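Researcher: For the record, we're logging two predictions in this thread. I'll number them. Prediction 1 follows.
Model: Prediction 1, sequence and structure:
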Amino acid sequence: MTLWRLFPLILAAASLASVSVIGPALADDHDRDQHVSVMPQTDAEVKTDSPAIAGEPMSYLIDFQDPGEASRWRAINDDVMGGVSRGGMTVADGIGAFSGETSLANNGGFASVRRDPEAFDLSDAPGLALHVRGDGRAYQLRLYTDQLPQGAAYRASFQPSAGEWQRITLPWHDFKPMFRGRLLEGIPPIDPAGIDQVGLMIVDGQAGPFRLEVAWLDAMGHQSSQ
């Protein structure tokens, strides 16, 4: 039997053996990453209070000007394991806001949101781009595929400057397979054709309010994301 076929059994045993080691111990696939986060270079900042550019087409993979977008996101915070952090996604005036407050109490420290599953056609894209306005804190974009065991995700970290709209580009090689804060070994690179769910997370070891505004998410290199 190949190592890959044995992986789910090995992972399950390793997870049980390491529950008391990982800190904070978080439920589901959430934990403070134990590896140095990749902070990709951002493109030129868009110095405006509006994420829309005159004449720019509005045909994005995920567009918060879509009236139905608000109902497609759900919160998964550290209260699932006794923490008291709070966070969620709200939408107003065509902007999605992932916001709340992280707390390190009760061994917690994360807040996250996930979008409802949807089959995306990203096989020809070199990565993903986001148009965001942050608060100076670090965030993660998390991608889910059937390549990974349940609860694991491919994640890339980014840290936009506070108070300015920026386009963040995340090529596929920035996404690392993670499970409860641990880098998974022997896993193939992400297959863009298999991505069927996206999420956002904050787990930077800090307590306090956070706010990440998102105008859109699109395939890197797509005409609408230039």
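Researcher: Logged. Prediction 2.
Model: Prediction 2, sequence and structure:
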Amino acid sequence: MKHLSYLVTALATGAVLSVAMTIQPAQAQVAYGSYIGVGPTVGLTDGIQVGGVVAARYKLLESPISFRAQALIGRNTAIVPTVSYDIPLNWQTDAYLGAGLVLAGGDTASPVGNKISFALQPGIDYVVPNSQTVIFGNAIIAFDAYREGGGGAAISVQGGVGYKF
């Protein structure tokens, strides 16, 4: 009987350890879902310019890549398509870094310039739990963004609320 209790203890300990070895720690995944949203934008160069933004994200499932596009509407309009690498911070939040183009033209500057230029877009998306609501915010840094005045970079900051689908 004495040996039986040792055997039961050894078997129970072995079973617990074998189960513990097979359990993998949970890891956050990039938040799934594409969205479309609206909000304000503020151009910080060439004088402060306040306008609006229409933003869209198309998330590639099971990949940390998203296609994004924003229309920045101020004194002039610019379209900014980017491809981003998404980094999950937790179950509802992604940080990302996108690269793409600013498609702008005309004599009047948009919040990100008036010339076709290369752009970087760091940002963050937050999905409100138990809803289809996304809160987003980002910056767009456009390089060589102005026709006149020797080029120069343009920076805009925008944020808003979107509907996840």
